Every structure is written in structure tokens, then in C-alpha cells.
Model the fold of this input.
Amino acid sequence: MNSIGEACNDLKKEYDACFNSWFSEHFLKGNTNDSMCAPLFRVYQQCVKKAMKDHKIDLQEVNNDILGTDKEKQPQTSS
Amino acid sequence: MPRFFSDTIIFNYNWDQVAQGFWKRYPNPNSKHVLSEDTLQREVRSGRLFTKRLLSKTNSTPKWAERFVTAKHVHIVEESIVDPKRRVLITYTRNLGYAKVMSVTEKVVYTESEEHPGKTVALRSAWIDSQVKGFSRAICAFGYERFKKKLQ
Done:
């Protein structure tokens, strides 16, 4: 899958490949040390952050955490 | 008039397969409207993996709604938590921008099926809301139908 920034596609592919193998081979098997892909993640992030600025994405709204907080929407009866 | 939707789906894959597939679901032939996908935050806290991703999709706007929404693309924030010990994956997605016109929020909880070993249960909830005066009912109804149609 492509990145939002065309220039980030290769960095993203490398990082995704690393993450997917870490997730299957380490994390799901109980090893929670996530340093394996950290260097790839860092360079990929530098690229994406710039691309998000270029696309004028509201970073404040993105950074807002909802899941796992009391800001989550609650189930209700369908009307 | 906010609309709420929920359903349960059973996948013929075990939980590990579903959790691994979650990261690889794009691109696929049924989601040509998804244009990009990026991981923005990722960390392990107390043995659980927290991830935030940004997706961009094409936006199909009906003619009557063009006066509210002119954007051709919409951005989606997807938060997720993977708990490998309890074997739970939770995803929470919401649209960025235009949230006053129409906000679509979806939460899905994937767990191992107790009834059907080796299968995975997904409990999905969705909220569709709009704050456009005089149009919110129509917009919510449209959003609700479009959401249900996409599930088919």
C-alpha cells in the first residue's frame, strides 16, 4: 500500500516488511521488545511527517487519542 | 439524528491469522477507494501494542451534499490495540475533517470464538452523526445506508 507521500513509499515498504515479520515472529509469540524495526520507523516517520504537512492535515486532530480513553463513543440502542 | 449500527461477524480464520491480516488488508480488490495508509505512532505498553494509522480514501459525495463537502479525499485515523495474551484486537476509526458535516466512527473488537475453536468473532459498532442544521437527518440516513452497503 502506498504512503500519503510519494517520496516515502520505499521507506514505508521497508518498515512494513520489518514490522510484519516482527509482529508474527516476535510479538505474537510473547516477545514485546520492539527495538527491531525502530531505526526504520524513525526515518519513515521523518518522511511522513513532512508529507502530512504538505497535505495540510490537522496534526492536532490526528494526535488526539480516543481508543482506550473515556472519549470513546458508547453503544446505544438503534433508533 | 445520530445513527447507531452494530453486528457480529464470524471469520473462518484463527485469531493469529486475523491479527496478522489486519496489517496487510490494503491493497485488496474490494477497497480500491483506499489510496494510502501510513503508520504514525506505534509502541508497546504493558505488553499491548498501540498503533495509530492514517488512511486516505476517495470520497463519494451525492449531488445534494456537494454544497457541504467539496473534498475529493477523506482522511481516516485508525487506532488499534493488540493484546496478544488475552487475544484481543480492538480497532477504532474516525474521519478527520468535515466531522461536523458527517462523522463516521467504527469500533471493532476481534476475539477468539468460544463456540467455534479456530474461528474469530468480530463485534462491530458504528456511529454516524451530523451537525448540519436542517440536513442532519438526511445526512445521517445517507451515511448509515452507505455504511451498510459497504459491508456487503
